[in-house]
Design goal:
heterodimer, A: about 230 residues, 2 domains, 11 helices
Chain lengths: ~230, ~100
C-alpha cells in the first residue's frame, strides 16, 4: 500500500515535471487570451470559465476572434469542433494505453486531453506503463496555470505583447519536435513524418486552418499502413 | 455572468469534449491488430509532424532557420535545453530577419 502510494506520487511528480515547460511557456498565451476576452466584454470569471471548460489554446484564440456581441453559440461550437478535430484521433490513440484507468477516470482524463498532455502521455506510454497518477501530474499544474493566467490576463490585458516576439511559440514547437524524435525507433518513422509534414504544409499553403493537421496526419499514417511490407520494418 | 456568454462558452466546451471523448466509441478490439495497430503506432509522430511542419516550412525565413536548429539539435539535446534553444533561436531569428 505504502509502496503503491509512493509509486503514484513519483509518477505524479514525473508528469508534472514533463508539462512544466508547457505551463511556463503557456502563461503569456493565456494572458493574451484573457486580454482578448476582456476586449470582447467577458468578465474575469467568464474568461476563467472558458479556459477551465475548454482548455485548448488554439480553439480559444479562434473562438474569441469570431466572438460577436451577443455571441453566436452555435457558430462558435462549430468553429471549436473544427479546430479540435485532431483530438478525435488523439483520444482514440491514447485510449489504447489507458488499460490501467477505471472507466470514470478514463472519461475524466480525456476531458483534459490538450495537445501537450496527449503528446507527453504518448511519449510516456511508448517507454513504460501510463498510470493515472502520471496523467494527473501532466494536467494538474498546466491546467491550473492556464486558468489562472487567463484570469490574470483580463486584469493586466493592455500590457501584453505578442509572445511570438520573444519566440515563446517555439517552446511548443521545440517540445513537439523533441517528442517526435522520441518516436524515431518506430517502423516507418521517417516515411510517416515526411509524408505528414509535406501534406500538412501543402494543405496549409492552399487553405490555412486546422484541417492541415488532420490531412497531414492521415496521409502520414496511410503511407506507413499501406506501404508494401518489406519484412524488415524500417 | 451573462447568460448568452455562458451559453457560448458551454457550446465551445461541449464541442471540445465531444472531440476528446470520441475515441471512446472506437471499438477496442480494432486498435490492437495488424495494419490498424501499425496505423496507431505511426499516429503520434505523424500528428505532431503535421502540427509543426506548416509553422517551420511556411511561415517565413526566421521560422525555417529556427526550425532547422531545433530539428538538428533534437538528436542531441534533452527536452528542456531543446525548448530553451528553440525559444532563443526563434526570438533571435525574428529579431534579425523580422
Amino acid at each position: 500500500m505504502d509502496m503503491q502510494r509512493q509509486t503514484a506520487l513519483s509518477d505524479f511528480r514525473a508528469g508534472a515535471m514533463a508539462t512544466l515547460p508547457a505551463a511556463v511557456a503557456g502563461v503569456p498565451f493565456a494572458l493574451l487570451i484573457g486580454a482578448l476576452a476582456a476586449e470582447k466584454g467577458l468578465s474575469m470569471a467568464e474568461a476563467g470559465l472558458m479556459s477551465a471548460l475548454v482548455f485548448a489554446g488554439s480553439a480559444q484564440f479562434i473562438g474569441l476572434d469570431n466572438w460577436q456581441s451577443p455571441p453566436a453559440w452555435f457558430l462558435l461550437g462549430l468553429i471549436v469542433f473544427a479546430v479540435n478535430t485532431r483530438h478525435i484521433v488523439m483520444s482514440a490513440s491514447i485510449l489504447r494505453h489507458m488499460g490501467g484507468f477505471s472507466v470514470p477516470s478514463r472519461v475524466l482524463a480525456l476531458l483534459f486531453l490538450a495537445d501537450e498532455v496527449w503528446a507527453f502521455a504518448e511519449a510516456r506510454a511508448a517507454r513504460t506503463r501510463l498510470s493515472p497518477a502520471f496523467y494527473a501530474g501532466l494536467v494538474a499544474f498546466f491546467y491550473a496555470s492556464w486558468v489562472l493566467s487567463t484570469m490574470a490576463g483580463v486584469l493586466i490585458g493592455g500590457v501584453i505583447r505578442d509572445p511570438k516576439t520573444y519566440g515563446l511559440d517555439f517552446a511548443f514547437i521545440a517540445m513537439f519536435v523533441g517528442l517526435i524524435a522520441g518516436f524515431r525507433g518506430r517502423p516507418g518513422f521517417a516515411l510517416s513524418i515526411g509524408v505528414s509534414a509535406a501534406v500538412a504544409t501543402l494543405v496549409h499553403l492552399i487553405a490555412p486552418g486546422p484541417q492541415s493537421i488532420i490531412a497531414g496526419a492521415v496521409a502520414g499514417v496511410a503511407a506507413v499502413t499501406l506501404r508494401p511490407s518489406t519484412g524488415e520494418g524500417g | 455572468m451573462q447568460g448568452d456568454v455562458v451559453t457560448a462558452i458551454a457550446a465551445m466546451a461541449a464541442a471540445t469534449a465531444a472531440t476528446r471523448l470520441a475515441g471512446l466509441v472506437v471499438p477496442r478490439a480494432l486498435a490492437g491488430k495488424g495494419r490498424i495497430k501499425a496505423a496507431f503506432d505511426a499516429l503520434p509522430a505523424a500528428v505532431l509532424a503535421a502540427i509543426v511542419a506548416p509553422v517551420l516550412l511556411a511561415s517565413g525565413w526566421a521560422e525555417m532557420l529556427a526550425g532547422l536548429a531545433v530539428v538538428v539539435a533534437a538528436r542531441y539535446l534533452p527536452l528542456i535545453p531543446l525548448i530553451i534553444l528553440g525559444v532563443l533561436a526563434a526570438a533571435g531569428a525574428r529579431a534579425v530577419l523580422g
